[in-house]
Amino acid sequence: MDRKRKILILIDWYLPGFRAGGPIQSCANIVDQFKNEFDFSVGTSDTDLGETSPYPNIKPDNWNEISTGSRVYYFLSGGLSFIKIKQFLLREDFDAVYLNSLFSTYFTIYPLLILKRNKPAVKEIVAPRGMLGRGALNIKPLKKKLFLTFSKAFGLYKRVIWHASTETELKEIKGTFGDDAEVVTALNLPSVRKPERVKRVKESGKLNLIFLSRISVKKNLHLA
User: Fold this and answer.
1) What is the C-alpha R_g of the chain?
2) Which residue, 8, 91, 188, 189, is the most exposed by fewest CB within 10 angstroms?
């Protein structure tokens, strides 16, 4: 039997975190859906978005197995550096690395620089996670425009495989990186875990709304 291909997922925040919203759950769902076909590992920080205290009951700068069965390496947030990321990537063997950001210093930019120089055979897959949308690019626009200009000039994203979660995102990627960009479109997967359903009764004259997303300026939640 052929061995499972090893895939490393790099993401700024992961389970048990939740404050970064959809990307956490999207990656967790990928692992749950395909863990029998692929050997997944996750590299992430040891704190949730906006928090200063690390997750309880984990070993920082070590591999941990969390309740979902995932193998996760939690980097000590205060100790992240180019050298630490490089040492991590060079001592581990993976067939592909799945990067869940466009602008993350430690979990996208540094890994791309390191892999291109030291492990060119490893497939690099980048999911922009909506960061190329007009609303997202209008937040700190000058900084992002300069970064994209330099990243294209120096080939940071050259030969990567892009993961677009929608046709709109596919157009955004090609609009930024050109029609030659290799893009695979795949919808975000649903969770395989069935939630407990609670029956609720609508009260006349009363409306309760739930906002299922990350709190961010680009979501335009204040208009609601």
Assistant:
1) 19
2) 91
